[in-house]
Specification:
Layout: E1 22-24, E2 28-32, E3 37-41, E4 46-48, E5 52-56, H1 62-71, E6 75-79, H2 87-91, E7 95-96, H3 100-106, E8 109-112, H4 117-125, E9 139-142, H5 148-160, E10 164-167, E11 170-171, H6 174-179, E12 182-188, H7 190-203, E13 204-209, H8 215-243, H9 248-257, H10 263-273, H11 283-299, H12 305-319
Parallel strand pairs: 5-6, 5-8, 6-7, 8-9, 9-10, 12-13
Antiparallel strand pairs: 1-13, 2-3, 3-4, 10-12, 11-12
Bound molecules: NADPH dihydro-nicotinamide-adenine-dinucleotide phosphate (NDP) and 4-oxobutanoic acid (SSN).
4-oxobutanoic acid (SSN) is lined by residues 145, 171-173, 224, 281.
Amino acid sequence: MVRGVNHTLMAASFCPSLPQHFKPKPIIKFRKSSSSFKVFSSQSSIDEVPTRVGFLGLGIMGSPMAQNLIKAGCDVTVWNRTKSKCDPLIDLGAKYKPSPAEVAASCDVTFAMLADPESAMVVACGEDGAASGMSPGKGYVDVSTVDGPTSKLINGQIIETGALFLEAPVSGSKKPAEDGQLIFLTAGDKSLYEKVAPYLDIMGKSRFYLGDVGNGAAMKLVVNMIMGSMMTSFAEGLLLSEKVGLDPSVVVEVISQGAISAPMFSLKGPAMVQSKYPTAFPLKHQQKDMRLALGLAESVSQSTPIAAAANELYKVAKSHGLSDSDFSAVIEALKVKRKD
Ligand SMILES: NC(=O)C1=CN([C@@H]2O[C@H](COP(=O)(O)OP(=O)(O)OC[C@H]3O[C@@H](n4cnc5c(N)ncnc54)[C@H](OP(=O)(O)O)[C@@H]3O)[C@@H](O)[C@H]2O)C=CC1
Ligand SMILES: O=CCCC(=O)O
């Protein structure tokens, strides 16, 4: 069943100062034609787009991303290792296949949103993995956060089948995923990038095309390395303020009004002050990204001592059982236990 016919998405304003590789969100309308969807966009006239969309990996990010595709009227087929996570999407109109290979075989383009390099590899290239269902004319878009070498391995396996590959990790967390406000950091096959652009524009607010496979992964790791270090510095500041008799809530407010204000501090600070860490971005994934970013830095002999120190704190927090808490729980690693 087709849903959301004539669904109109947000228009982005034109900004002449933006670099060439940046594309803001265009106006998109999906309309059902006799045999396929056509896309009417503000940036191109009418383009044929792949009609059957697969989605593998329905965790915190994958579920809302797939949901937005379904709500926009796309023909979506889902798979997840834990099948129960498919059920709400099936209720919304998604089809289901019992393996990544069967999803890929039945779809024109397949997206994957997996936890880490290992799961991205097994879902793409393992037994009954997506590569087994790929063939010329199809596309595979990996939106997971992985390292460049993993992405290149997946690219190799996919293009061996004659299909096309794009890496497209995202910046933005649970709420931007729900709101269709993600930022795509893409690299790989340019023709596939252009074909799937209408889908990226449903799930995101902007997209960057960065060239060869590995560049999207590198961009994502650099951004998350900075984010991970910022969070540990913020945590140190909150705890220090408390120790010297300041109200950490006021620190959050002061920061929000000055040059170092960041949505992350304003969003997560008030909960951190109350030792609450509702999960948007799991701490285990932030530590994975610090580890991968440090590997990237080492591969080019770039010194990253701040990130290395921050990574140690995420490792300590993991050892305290905080892997599945939000990454802001890293503050717990800095709390020295008081003796009674
Ligand atoms: N949460 C966030 O704010 C953001 C996360 N990211 C990145 O997106 C990716 C997904 O994140 P998120 O949705 O938060 O993570 P979740 O932990 O919520 O979801 C992970 C997904 O990977 C699947 N998975 C894990 N291991 C395997 C495996 N061995 N075989 C098959 N499937 C597996 C899980 O399946 P199952 O349900 O069966 O466990 C689940 O679908 C990560 O790479 C993360 O770094 C990027 C931007 C923001
Ligand atoms: O990888 C997670 C990114 C989280 C964010 O950008 O807010």
